[in-house]
Amino acid sequence: MRVSIDPARCQGHGRCYDLAPDLFGEDEEGYAVLTDLTADRDVPADREGDARLAAANCPESAVLVHEEARA
Amino acid sequence: MTVDDRFTEEARAQRIAQAQLGTFNEIITGPVSDWTTDFSHLEPEYAENAIEIWDDLRERCPVAHTERFGGAWLPTRYEDVQAIAYDTEHFTSRAIIVSNVRPPLDVAPVGLAPPISSDPPFHHDARKLLLPAFTKANVAKQAVTTEAFCHSLIDGLAGRDVVDAATDYGMYIPMRVIADMLGFPQEDSEKFAHFVENALEGANGPLEERQARGMALSDYLFEQVRDHLDNPREDLTTYLLNAELYGQRLSPQHVVGTMTLLLIAGIDTTWSAIGSSLWHLAKNPEDRKRLVADRSLRPKAVEEFLRAYAPVTMARLVKEDVELGGVQMKKADWVLLPFPSANRDPERFEHADEVLIDREVNRHAAFGLGIHRCVGSHLARMELTVALDVWLDRIPEFSLADPAAVRWSAGQIRGPRALPLRIG
């Protein structure tokens, strides 16, 4: 599984970094960013549940979950 | 004495003399005859029954209308509220509190309280100035002082069996936090309460009265500006006085408008959220006991209280005629954005009418949707979390002392303004 943030949708509600602060972080204006655990790599298998939870709680549907693994 | 030509007495007097007031409508008050064609969010029956009114309208008239306020709409479905919040082409934020005055067109795109009153593209730049101060990481730095303040409020309740959770507790927390951020004297909370009431609950009051009270706010902010020019310090007021946009210092209207926004928007809203949450827990002992016993459940409960009792209804003015939700909206019509109603739409939320404090998936819109997402949302969450933590840890046993004495605010910010609780 991979995750990404759609910057055109993210408004900085911060639900993703509230719920899964190891998978998502905030930039200096509060917009969501990926972390070392999620940038350019697959979500760790034992963290996939929280990645889905973060996506399901984003009010702007800006957290995107791609179920297929990185090649 | 520092001279800042934006904030001399003369410059201010000139601004006041030149101010354009906008377009006025007849003030219509009194009981609502039909919620689908004559709604008013400023009448006492709305304050008491807003949730039932939204649920009813969502079923049979999802975009209600009123001739009051010179014409206004009330959409109640999530889908319609979301569509309007995202559509900055047909809807302007030039005014965001429905009243009987529509500000002149030329206040756009800055508006009277930037960035909440601003439209793109100016909005983005004005908002960018504020965002860094309100990130989760930055507001977390205030959690310790907020917690200590909450404890001091609870200490002050010692020896009493019945306390008012709204006016003895919840109200002071956001006042203290925002006074600290703006660098205003902490003892001015009584004044803040009047300013807020005038701007929000008093939105349909007589014009002369509103203008006189608006001038009192303006005088107060001018005094704070002058004090900060003389004694610059590490706070948002000094920050705004020094801030630049497009290579120039902010206009004086921008500085004072943003100060107004931060003072007004931060108080009633968070006060309401704290009060609604404690009201729910006072009425539902099972939920209260679960949260007292299990701190790990509290973050989910906070989100559920924000969903079910979202305090804030925003508003827009129609910029261009547009069809939305099956109705024809005309230029200059008001449109309310009742986020709390959107949050209770069964099309969007399972068991929408039930408060489930362990709800896992909660894509609520309490802080708005789209570009105007509440700038203070991380601050509000911190305050609500700390306020509930301290209360539950210090006063685990409480119930409504007199359910009939609970009074909810009318207008666009909804929460208990009288909340007598029996404690201990």
UniProtKB/TrEMBL annotation, chain A:
Keywords: 3Fe-4S, Electron transport, Iron, Iron-sulfur, Metal-binding, Transport. The keyword rRNA-binding does not apply. GO terms for molecular function: 3 iron, 4 sulfur cluster binding; metal ion binding. It holds the Pfam family Fer4_15. Its cofactor is [3Fe-4S] cluster. SUPFAM superfamilies: 4Fe-4S ferredoxins (SSF54862). This is Ferredoxin. It comes from Blastococcus aggregatus. The lineage of its organism: Bacteria, Bacillati, Actinomycetota, Actinomycetes, Geodermatophilales.
Automatic annotation (TrEMBL), chain B:
The keyword Ribosomal protein does not apply. InterPro entries: Cyt_P450, Cyt_P450_B, Cyt_P450_CS, Cyt_P450_sf. Gene3D superfamilies: Cytochrome P450 (1.10.630.10). The keyword Iron applies. Pfam families: p450. GO terms for molecular function: heme binding; iron ion binding; monooxygenase activity; oxidoreductase activity, acting on paired donors, with incorporation or reduction of molecular oxygen. Keywords: Heme, Iron, Metal-binding, Monooxygenase, Oxidoreductase. Belongs to the cytochrome P450 family. This is Cytochrome P450. It comes from Blastococcus aggregatus.
